[in-house]
Every structure is written in structure tokens, then in C-alpha cells.
Design goal:
heterodimer, A: alpha/beta, Ubiquitin-like (UB roll), Alpha-Beta Plaits, Fe-only Hydrogenase (Larger Subunit), Chain L, domain 3, five-stranded mixed beta sheet, four-stranded parallel beta sheet, 18 strands, B: alpha+beta, Glutaredoxin, four-stranded mixed beta sheet, 7 helices, elongated, disordered N terminus
């Protein structure tokens, strides 16, 4: 048993492990201390001082997030002195904040607003010292940066550095001029930002938000000349409910489909369909690479790495441009969907593709950038016209006036509305790998993966880097060169962990054949476009909902989905075929790191 | 529908988003560094074992080589020491010793220490600003003069004091400013 410390918080006796902060100790006895710069995903900064408390025998107030407990401490969290100090601190923050809350995207979901309201801050207390003429950086397709709403808590800086190892933003200048800045104050689209949006989900205010496109989508829906199609990503259905009154981890798939139809989308389809398609293409690409390497001794880039996460793709383009050949050439499910909607789907339903507006509902900020990549036009049009975040979808549903909770469930439309459980797990870290293994193993051996109920548990969970090995035995004759081969796979989520994986590849020590990387911690369920906040507890609940959704699906393997079989029979003909290469695969760009 | 083509302003790559408190107007010009200076800078980095912890020391030496720290110099240091660019920029902008603007051929420093200040240094400073049409911390467009303030050169008996390059001027009055500048006409 570790050393413990006994203290009193507001008269309640508490015993916690030595080294625990006062803030965390208070949580164990349900004493809530307000915070602002603190986020459980990040290291302690202690710069906002909103969490101050009184410790008996000490002259000065103590920042509870940064102060470890000491034996016998008598802590008071709500004395008049503490309240006065907090009110002063919050008032000072408000005095340099752009308090146009009524027009702010984060209104009602803003931590500063909540604190100001809780402490009933008097706006007359300090004169506004908000700097005039601060411009909003709207240069990026994905992220807007509004310094007038920044409280300089540096959660974004810590996120970008600690969680993501990107370091696109840092603290610059000092004193009253101190600000969160890119290198040379360059626009966000001109620096190494990978658009993951983790800074957005970690920002307590409206200083960092995703670039919104839903106004334009409302316009398109209202235009009778347009055929507006939306496809929804796996992890949207397990998080959207959080914005509409449901507890974390509630699945709202059927209600979401119904709401989107009522909003006026001409067709509500499932990104899961192209997730299954990704497995078909990526699985065969993997087998092709392995065949070349093991059967013919050709030099191919192994390990192969997944390419579904556009934040990850831009990260490797910036940070490891010399290793782009390790990336699967498969487009992400969103982009596969886009190119098929304006070709296959348009043909099937008999609509002129120039009239189709293709929208993607995504848990992601980087998907907006990805939709606008200049090479993503294989249908002859911009394949995806707009990527909306889960939050934007939530706002649209609120704006529509629908009684979401009482909506009956509805099914996705066709074509491209059918999918398997293997596709829905794309939303959780390890999911793409699990889906790929379910199919690849069966293609090679003719048997199901040897895991109970198809649950490949070693690749599941929140551990930063997960490893698994699957031994191929009694393989089909076509794959005899794989007999006895142990396929080694790894899964990394959060770009910090991706860097570890890439450094191994760079050093030539990577022991793996196949690697899944997702830019955001937890995978897409913790994406930069998901409802705020996201913490590990919330990630776990969303992940549990994803696997529950998988288990409830009648088809659990990508290659068994009827519509997938149909699209290969009628349109694509074969995985990695000519048409696939034209529509479903892509290339990458070497970008500057410095 | 043209809804999804964002109206994105085409900025020059080096154009800062806003110059409100950055004072880096000069750095928006793309600079070509001399190869021998780049080599020298890389040697400096190597002499500190390319250790990220030596960033401030390296920046100090770099400013010695180039006279200032333009974006291009910061980029080399970032690469050599493996320190993120945004972090290098953060350090450069934090310390007033570091500058991203090249000093003029004749750097002008006006002492605004207590003694000089009470004897009218501010009026002298205003006169320099007016004549050169620049603010403190800036350099004239022809690169001839730059303007800075300093605190006490230890010659309070001569207050207010102005330094131009190595030369010291004492008991400077605003009406002397034109004459002083005229000395550096060439």
C-alpha cells in the first residue's frame, strides 16, 4: 500500500495517496473546486489561479491544482477570502475577454461564462481592457482562432505539445502582450497545424473553434435544385446525444437518421458503408504488399499504416515526409464516400452529379481540410462539399426545432446505407485494425478470427500503443507462403504515440507488419469535432457504446455486407481494380516541417 | 451551390496575420542568408551539441552573427536543435534582448534613464521619431538608422545622452537632432 496522507477538506476527513493534489483529493469527497486552466488530459499549469483554496496556517491562498496534499492539512474551499479572490480573478479575466456571449459559438458550453455566472461577476468591477481590432484567423479550413476570446490558460498549447507533439502554437511575447501564437504569427493554414482540432476540444472558451459550414448547408437544403446527401461517421452516433440531453455513451443512431431526414437532407447514408469498403481495399492492399515482400522478395514499404485519419495523414506529411510510402493509398471513408456519391450513387438514383451536394457528418475538424484537398476531385467534382462536426450537427438539430428525444428510430437510406459491425468500430482506437483482421484472416485461412464473438480484445482499450500478433495456420492454398507467419500489428492513438511508432520505422526497428494510427486520443470518439468536454471517462463510455453497436449488428464482417458485394459486382469489379484506383485511392504530399 | 469554397484570403507566405503587438513588420520580407553565415550558425549549434536546452545561448550567438533573428535564422535553429518553430519564436519574442528587426547602419540609442528623462530625453526622442518617421524598435526603410531606448549609460552629467553607433552626444536638445542626423548623410 502506497503512503497515504490524512487531511481535512471543509471539515471532511480525507485520506489520499501522497502526492495527490488538493484538487483531486477534494474530488474524492465530492467537493467541487472551480478550475479553468486545468484539464485532466494535460499537465498542471497553475496559471489561472481560479482554483485557490485556504490552507490553515498559510498566509497566502494556494492553487489547489498544483499543490500536493500534506499530512494534517486543514483546507477550506469556500471561505469569504477564497470567494473574494476567485471573484476578482474571474472579473479580471472577463475584463480582457470579448464578452459578446450572445453571438459566441461556445455560448452555454463555455467554462469562463459558467464561472462568471456562478460567481455572479459584476462587469463594472474592472473596466474592459480588451485589445481593439483583434482579427479572427479564418485562414484554415478547419480551425478558427479568435484571440479576443483567449484567456491565455494555454490548454491549447499543452494539448498541441503534449498530446499531439505538433507544436503549431506556443506562447509568444510577454506581459500584457502575451498571446498564443503560431511561428511568426503566421496564419493557421501556413504552419504545421494538422487540423486535428484537439486544441478546440480542450479550449475552455470560444477562442478556438472549428470553422463552421452549416449555414451553407441550410442554404443548399432550401434549394430545390440541389440533391443534398449526408453520410454520418461511426462515432457521431455515440456522441451526438450528449448535445441533445442524453447521458454520455447513449447511442442515438436511429433518432439521428430521422432528425437528418426531417431537416431536409434528400438522403441520409452511412459512412460505415465506405468504412467496410476501406477494409476491402486496405485489407487487399495489405495482402498485396505482404505477398510481394514474402512471396517474391520484392522491396515494399512495410509496415503498412492506415490512412483514415486526416490529422494523422497531415502529421506524417509534415513530420516524416520521407516515409509516406508506408501509408496505405486508400482514401479515408469520408473521401471514398464523396467520390462514390457523385459517380456510383448518382448513376443508381439517376441524379446529375453536378446537382449533388455531398455532406459528411464527422467527429473531426481535419475532415474539413481533407474535403478541400485539391486532389480530392476524382468524381470530376469536389468529392465532399462540406465536412460538419458532431457539434455542428447538434446545432442544426437544435435549430430545426425537432423534439429529438421523442423521434422514432429510422433506418439509413439506400444505396450506400448498409454496413457491418466491423465498420462501426472504426470509431474507436483499434477498430480499423480489428475490422481488417476480421476480413484478412478469413480471406487467408477461410475461417473466422479465433476470438470469442469476433471481439479481438488485445487491440481494444485506451493504452497509448497496443500490440497484437495473429498466427496464420492452415492457410488456403493461394496463401501458402503465409503458413505459420505471425502477423504483428500495432495501434497508436494520439499523435504523441504515433511519433513513437514513426521513430521506430525511421530507425528501422519497427517489428510490425500493419499499424493503425488515429490522430486523436481514443480514436474518432475523442475527435476534435466531438461534443465538449472529452475526458478519459467520457472516451471509455463512447467506446463502450461503439462496441455495443457492433454487437447489435446482423453483419459483423465487412466482406459479408450485401451492398458491398453488390458494388463490387456492378461497379468496382474487384478490390484494387482499375476503378478502385481511380476513385478510392490517393497520393500524399511532402510538406515542410520547419 | 458554391457553398463550400471558403473565401480564403491569399496572403503572402510571410505576411503576419496582424502586427498589433508583434512589431515584426520587417520580417515579412523574405531574406536570403549568406551561406558562410549559415555554416557559422550550424557550427554554433554543433558547439552546443545541438542540445535543445541551449536554445537561448544559440539564439544569443546567432544574433551576434546576423545582428538580428529573422524567421530564416529561427528556422535553421529549430531544425538543428530539434525545437518546434513556435517555441523558438516564443523565446525570441519573450526576451527584449532578441530582435527580429535588423539594426540600421547607424543605430541610434536614446537614454531614457531617470536623469536623462527629467532633462528632456522624451522630447529628443520625439524629434528623432519625427525626423526618421519610425517608432522605437524600428529601422528606416533605407536601412540607415534604427531607433532604440536604453536606460542609463553612466554619463548622467551629460544628460540627456544620445548614442549613434559608438559616438556619444551629450546635453542633446531637440533642435540638435537634425544636425546630428546630417553627420551621417553619406
Amino acid at each position: 500500500m502506497a503512503d497515504t496522507v490524512k487531511i481535512h477538506i471543509d471539515g471532511i476527513p480525507v485520506e489520499v495517496i501522497k502526492g495527490t493534489s488538493i484538487l483531486d483529493a477534494a474530488k474524492t469527497v465530492n467537493v467541487k473546486i472551480p478550475t479553468l486552466c486545468h484539464h485532466e488530459d494535460l499537465c498542471v499549469a497553475g496559471n489561472c489561479r481560479v482554483c485557490v483554496v485556504e490552507v490553515e496556517g498559510r498566509k497566502n491562498l494556494v492553487a489547489s491544482c498544483a499543490a500536493p496534499v500534506e499530512e494534517g492539512m486543514m483546507i477550506k474551499t469556500t471561505t469569504a477570502k477564497v470567494r473574494r479572490a476567485r471573484t476578482d480573478l474571474i472579473s479580471l479575466l472577463v475584463s480582457e475577454h470579448n464578452t459578446q456571449c450572445t453571438t459566441c459559438y461556445r455560448s452555454t458550453n463555455c467554462e469562463l461564462q459558467a464561472l462568471a455566472s456562478e460567481y455572479n461577476v459584476d462587469s463594472e468591477r474592472y473596466l474592459s481592457v480588451l485589445k481593439p481590432n483583434l482579427q479572427i484567423d479564418k485562414s484554415s479550413y478547419s480551425i478558427e482562432k479568435d484571440d479576443s476570446k483567449c484567456v491565455r490558460c494555454q490548454r491549447c498549447v499543452r494539448t498541441c505539445a503534449e498530446l499531439q507533439h505538433v507544436n503549431a502554437i506556443d506562447v509568444a511575447h510577454k506581459g500584457r502582450d502575451m498571446k498564443i501564437s503560431t511561428f511568426m504569427d503566421l496564419p493557421m493554414n501556413d504552419v504545421v497545424c494538422v487540423n486535428c482540432g484537439q486544441c478546440v476540444t480542450h479550449c475552455p472558451t470560444g477562442a478556438l473553434t472549428e470553422r463552421r459550414y452549416y449555414h451553407e448547408i441550410w442554404e443548399a437544403i432550401g434549394d430545390p435544385d440541389k440533391h443534398v446527401v449526408i453520410n454520418t461517421a461511426p462515432s457521431v452516433r455515440v456522441a451526438l446525444g450528449e448535445m441533445l440531453g442524453y447521458p454520455v455513451g447513449t447511442r442515438v443512431t436511429g433518432k439521428m437518421v430521422n432528425a437528418l431526414k426531417k431537416i431536409g437532407f434528400d438522403s441520409v447514408l452511412d459512412t460505415d458503408f465506405t468504412a467496410d469498403l476501406t477494409i476491402m481495399e486496405e485489407g487487399h492492399e495489405f495482402l498485396q504488399r505482404v505477398t510481394k515482400a514474402l512471396k517474391y522478395g520484392e522491396k515494399v514499404a512495410l509496415p503498412m499504416i492506415t490512412s483514415c485519419s486526416p490529422g494523422w495523414v497531415k502529421f506524417i506529411e509534415h513530420m516524416y515526409p520521407e516515409h509516406l510510402d508506408h501509408l496505405s493509398t486508400c482514401k479515408s471513408p469520408q473521401q471514398m464516400f464523396g467520390s462514390l456519391v457523385k459517380t456510383f450513387y448518382a448513376e443508381k438514383i439517376g441524379v446529375d452529379p453536378s446537382k449533388i451536394v455531398s455532406v459528411a457528418a464527422m467527429p473531426c475538424a481535419a475532415k474539413k481540410f481533407e474535403a478541400n484537398r485539391p486532389e480530392m476531385k476524382s468524381s470530376g467534382y469536389q468529392d465532399v462539399d462540406a465536412g460538419l462536426t458532431t457539434r455542428e450537427i447538434g446545432h442544426m438539430i437544435k435549430q430545426s426545432g425537432l423534439d429529438f428525444v421523442n423521434l422514432p428510430d429510422m433506418d439509413y437510406d439506400s444505396y450506400m446505407g448498409e454496413s457491418s459491425g466491423a465498420a462501426v468500430i472504426f470509431g474507436a482506437t483499434g477498430g480499423v485494425m480489428e475490422a481488417a483482421l476480421r476480413t484478412v484472416y478469413e480471406v487467408v485461412t477461410g475461417r473466422e478470427v479465433p476470438f470469442k464473438n469476433l471481439a479481438i480484445t488485445p487491440v481494444r482499450g485506451l493504452e497509448g500503443i497496443k500490440e497484437a500478433a495473429v498466427k496464420l495456420e492452415n492457410v488456403l492454398p493461394a496463401f501458402d507462403f503465409l503458413e505459420g507467419v505471425e502477423v504483428k500489428v500495432a495501434i497508436a492513438h494520439g499523435l504523441r504515440n504515433a511519433r513513437t511508432i514513426m521513430d521506430q520505422i525511421k530507425a528501422g526497428t519497427s517489428p510490425y507488419h500493419f499499424i493503425e494510427v488515429m490522430a486523436c486520443p481514443g480514436g474518432c470518439i475523442g475527435g476534435g469535432g466531438q461534443p465538449i468536454p472529452t475526458t478519459d471517462e467520457i472516451r471509455k463510455k463512447r467506446i463502450a457504446a461503439i462496441y455495443a453497436e457492433d454487437e447489435g449488428m446482423p453483419v459483423r464482417k465487412s466482406h459479408e455486407v450485401p451492398e458491398i458485394k453488390m458494388i463490387y459486382e456492378q461497379f468496382l469489379h474487384e478490390p484494387l481494380g482499375h476503378k478502385s484506383h481511380e476513385l478510392l485511392h490517393t497520393h500524399y504530399i511532402k510538406r515542410k516541417r520547419y | 451551390m458554391n457553398c463550400c469554397i471558403p473565401t480564403i484570403s491569399t496572403r503572402a507566405t510571410r505576411s503576419p496575420l496582424n502586427n498589433l503587438n508583434t512589431g515584426n513588420t520587417m520580417s515579412s520580407i523574405k531574406i536570403k542568408l549568406h551561406q558562410q553565415d549559415i555554416d557559422k550558425l550550424k557550427e554554433v549549434c554543433a558547439s552546443f551539441n545541438n542540445d535543445a536546452g541551449e536554445l537561448i545561448n544559440v539564439l544569443h550567438k546567432a544574433q551576434g552573427i546576423f545582428g538580428y533573428l529573422p524567421a530564416e535564422v529561427q528556422e535553421i535553429i529549430s531544425k538543428e536543435l530539434n525545437v518546434p518553430l513556435a517555441k523558438v519564436y516564443g523565446v525570441v519574442t519573450f526576451y527584449s534582448f532578441f530582435t527580429m528587426i535588423p539594426k540600421g547602419k547607424h543605430p541610434i540609442s536614446i537614454c531614457t534613464g531617470t536623469a536623462c528623462y527629467v532633462r528632456g530625453a522624451e522630447k529628443v526622442l520625439d524629434e528623432f521619431k519625427k525626423n526618421l518617421n519610425i517608432k522605437v524598435g524600428e529601422t528606416t526603410a533605407d536601412g540607415k538608422f534604427s531607433l532604440s531606448c536604453l536606460r542609463c549609460v553612466g554619463a548622467c552629467g551629460l544628460a540627456p545622452v544620445v548614442l549613434v553607433g559608438e559616438k556619444t552626444y551629450g546635453r542633446v536638445a531637440p533642435d540638435m537632432v537634425k544636425e546630428i542626423l546630417a553627420e551621417y548623410k553619406d
